[in-house]
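Quick question, first post here. What does this chain look like in 3D?
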Amino acid sequence: MNEKVDDTPSSDDFRRLIAEGSFESALGALEEVLAHLEHGRLSMDESVTWYEIGLGLTKRCSDLLQQAELRISSIEDRFAVTVGVEPDWDADES
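> Answer (accepted):
Ran it through. Tokens below.
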């Protein structure tokens, strides 16, 4: 990676993504945070701050994935009821 640390958006930009970013933008930002941390030219305090931002972005992505899964389950349940198919409650949830 040839990215410069100076090109990294501010921590405030990342915090906005944590609060309201789409899955794709939060995932992309998480990749930027990881690259920033891997660069290795940070103070201990800066490293902890970027680590905290990374965890926030990870939680945002996880929350959005969970919402999508719930939405898909709801759609599948509605579809099954609409066409008279019983949901298979005994199926593995892997």
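The radius of gyration is 19 Å.
The mean pLDDT is 83.
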